[in-house]
Amino acid sequence: MVPSQGTDGGSIPLSRSFFMYQVYILQSLKDGKTYVGFCKNIENRIKEHNFGKVKTTKNRRPLKIIYAEKNNTIKEAKDREKYWKSGGGRRKLKYFFQNGFPPIQKL
Predict the structure, then answer these.
(1) HSE-CB of 45 using CA atoms within 13 angstroms
(2) Which residues of the chain have pLDDT under 50?
(3) How far apart are CA 104 and CA 15, in angstroms?
(4) pLDDT exceeding 70 applies to what percent of the chain?
(5) Rounded Cα distance, 36 and 55, in Å
(6) Angle at CA of residue 99, ends 41 and 27, nearest 5°
(7) With the C-alpha atoms ordered 36, 42, 48, 49, is the resulting torsion angle positive or negative?
């Protein structure tokens, strides 16, 4: 593992600082439906969605981000994506729509 320089002057593993994965939920402003995905660079990924470069959301543009969370590993991100696409995740998403979303984590 290659370390990177932390803000406290100590070294921290790159896997914790640089290779962070984000799970995100987008909502179509066209039809109101949601899309769940994960990526390493959320800013670029949202641009790809809104520029029509992602087949599954191409005809549902424009899209806005309504939720995002950080994950340390790709496995964690895939597990969280799977959760949000499951019945329990959809129920929680419905709850958020009714009661308000938590603030989006600074990514």
Answers:
(1) 17
(2) 1-17
(3) 22
(4) 79
(5) 14
(6) 35
(7) positive
Residue owning tokens 């340390």: 72
Q: What are phi and psi of 13, to 5 degrees?
A: -65, 140
Q: For residues 40 and 12, what is the distance between their CA atoms, to the nearest angstrom?
A: 18
Q: Is the dihedral of CA 52, 80, 103, 88 positive or negative?
A: positive
Question: How far is it between the farthest Cα atoms of the chain?
Answer: 48
Residues in the chain: 107
- Contacts of range 39-44, beta carbons closer than 8 Å, 24 or more positions apart: 42/68, 42/107
Which residues lie closer than 8 Å to 79 by C-beta, 6 or more apart? none
CB 68 within 8 A of CB 107: yes
pTM score over 0.85: no
